[in-house]
């Protein structure tokens, strides 16, 4: 099954399940953070989260696509 973008609310729900909290919304971006992360998780405030953003943010969280 090929990877495809997912809806932003679903990805935000995933982030909160991993212990992240909403830090701020600035312009067209939404920023989440969690204690122990090297950098915050940043997603665009669009309807869907692109695949490359998902991969980058999963790497920041220490998670894999599986």
What does this protein look like?
- The protein is an alpha+beta fold.
- 32% of the residues lie in helices and 29% in strands.
- The chain contains 2 helices and 5 strands.
- A 3-stranded antiparallel beta sheet has the order 2-3-4.
Low-confidence stretches: none
Order of strands across the biggest sheet? 2-3-4
- Total helix count? 2
Structural class: alpha+beta
Q: Considering DSSP H and I runs of 4 or more, what fraction of the residues is helical?
A: 25-40%
Mean pLDDT: 91
Separation of the first and last Cα atoms: 12 Å
Would you list the SSEs in sequence order as H and E? EHEEEEH
Give the biggest beta sheet: 3 strands, antiparallel
Count of DSSP strands: 5
The best one-word shape is globular
Proportion in β-strands: 25-35%
What radius of gyration results from the CA coordinates? Answer: 11 Å
Question: What does the secondary structure layout of this molecule look like, with pairings?
Answer:
Blueprint: E1 6-7, H1 8-17, E2 21-26, E3 29-33, E4 41-44, E5 48-49, H2 51-61
Antiparallel strand pairs: 1-5, 2-3, 3-4
List keywords for this structure.
66 residues, three-stranded antiparallel β-sheet, alpha+beta, two-stranded antiparallel ribbon
Give a quick precis of the structure:
The protein is of the alpha+beta class and 66 residues long.
């Amino acid at each position: 099954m090929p990877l495809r973008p997912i809806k932003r609310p679903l990805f935000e729900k995933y982030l909160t399940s991993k212990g992240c909290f909403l830090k701020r919304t600035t312009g067209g971006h939404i920023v989440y953070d969690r204690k122990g992360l090297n950098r915050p998780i940043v997603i665009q405030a669009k309807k869907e989260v692109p695949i490359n953003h998902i991969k980058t943010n999963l790497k920041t969280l220490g998670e894999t696509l599986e």
